[in-house]
Amino acid sequence: MRDPATDNNNNHSSSSASSSPPPPPPQALLERLKDYGQEDAFAFWDQLSADQQNFLLQEIESLDLPRIDRMIRCSFQSHGLPPAAIEPVPENFVSTVEDRKLEDREKWWKMGLKAISDGKLAVLLLSGGQGTRLGSSAPKGCFNIGLPSGKSLFQLQAERILCLQRLAAQSLDGGSGNVAPIHWYIMTSPFTDKPTRDFFKSHKYFGLETDQVTFFSQGTIPCVSKDGRFIMETPFQVAKAPDGNGGVYSALKYSRLLEDMATRGVKYLDCYGVDNALVRVGDPTFLGFFIDKGVASAAKVVRKAYPQEKVGVFVRRGKGGPVTVVEYSELDQSLASEINQGTGRLRYCWSNVCLHMFTLDFLNQVANSLEKDSIYHLAEKKIPSIHGQTIGYKLEQFIFDAFPYAPSTALFEVLREEEFAPVKNASGSNFDTPDSARLLVLRLHTRWVVAAGGFLTHSVPLYSTGVEVSPLVSYTGENLEPICRGRTFHAPCEITF
């Protein structure tokens, strides 16, 4: 279809030269819009060309008006309510690094590899965002943080999956068993879907089988004014925005991928965000811990670095209520600074870093519960509109909105320097940049190499460089001795087979 905007002048002049007025919008559709107070969507109908009228009709007919109306009403009603009182997460909910025994870690690693070799794990990547803040219009996963290998975030994650499959096969009796490929579900957005698919095709899926990767797109929701009416981006187009990373639940439901997972024998979903350069995709230790605890949901957490750090933290809502996340903007400064006298830690110290594990049964429950409750966060933003930049709301759900529905949740502490290297801001910013993420990767891998008996030389200070270990060689520093012992590597470099 041609872009109706380009037809505006031609058709407009021809229609104004014609004496007959344009036909009115279909009465039934107009009445439906009136039922939901959205009839202003047709305010410019008489000024539109025939193509633009058709575009607008298709746009309105594609909207699930009863569902959107329920979302708007429920979200506005809950928006003004005071948040429930919060309590710190009980200590026994958290497996801390300091309390974790070696035998537990080994047991969980083996349990996780067994579940992977049985085909019970799938990996779910949240990849709807563009690299706008990184100075790129491409999907974030295409971004190269400047490692010696020049690999993108997508490639690092794909190769960790390949390594995991090899470790799972080696864990079977005899070490030569065949394991089913780990299925990778990748949630895109309408803006990143095609470029993401094209990137994977052009890189031959980074060595993965093409049929072990499934792309699906999150939804969009109309942006609304402060009185709940649709904001029109143009006279014939409703302003829309992606529904947040929590849109994954309804996207999985409506694309029937929950059934697809069940058909494949998947029982557990490892879920993470694309912009973490150190993410341990499908971590067997975390999976084994999750299975051992028998919970419906779990999250990896890192200790909050300081009271004002801009991270959401896990809390308990209400007396004995569910474990959930409060965003840093919602946490009162006095609470953020409180110290637990028994541990010396911040009372609210367990940061959410978007590393989650769910059972498939729970995902089915969450998708239905969130749909029924229809409560979205209202993000006040400047929305492009026919009146210029208009202050209005985008409706979003977050991945952590699932946790209050979980009958049981466990938290698993990990070390920031081992598993959390966020890539959120352009180089030159104060934190979470490609440069800071690259250094975290190089420093971790340098520690692996030294622990495996290797040596480093370097022409720049070692704190600003290091070595990169290909994910195809090692997942968490294992199996490096035959490659590294007694050898000297000149930083920066990549260690491959």
Task: Outline the structure in words.
The structure is a single chain. The two termini are 50 Å apart. This protein is an alpha/beta fold and 497 residues long. 32% of the residues lie in helices and 21% in strands. The relative contact order is 0.14. It is built from 15 helices and 21 strands. α5 (102-117) packs across α6 (153-171), α5 (102-117) crosses α10 (284-293) and α8 crosses α12. An 8-stranded mixed β-sheet has the order 2-17-11-14-10-3-4-5, with helices on both faces. It has a 3-stranded antiparallel β-sheet with strand order 1-12-13, with no helix packed on it. A two-stranded antiparallel ribbon has the order 6-9. The chain has helices at 8-17, 27-35, 50-61, 65-79, 102-117, 153-171, 193-202, 248-254, 257-263, 284-293, 333-336, 360-373, 416-419, 434-451, 481-484; strands at residues 86-88, 94-95, 121-126, 183-188, 213-217, 220-222, 232-234, 237-238, 240-242, 268-273, 297-303, 313-317, 323-326, 350-359, 377-385, 388-396, 409-413, 455-458, 467-469, 488-491, 493-495. The radius of gyration is 25 Å and the shape is globular. The model is unreliable at 6-18 (pLDDT under 50).
Please state the CA-atom Rg, rounded to the nearest Å: 25 Å
Q: How would you sum up the global shape?
A: globular
Summarize the amount of helix as a percent range. Answer: 25-40%
Sheet with the most strands, sense and barrel status: 8 strands, mixed
Q: How confident overall, as mean pLDDT?
A: 92
Based on helices, strands and strand pairing, what is the structural class? alpha/beta
Distance separating the two termini: 50 Å
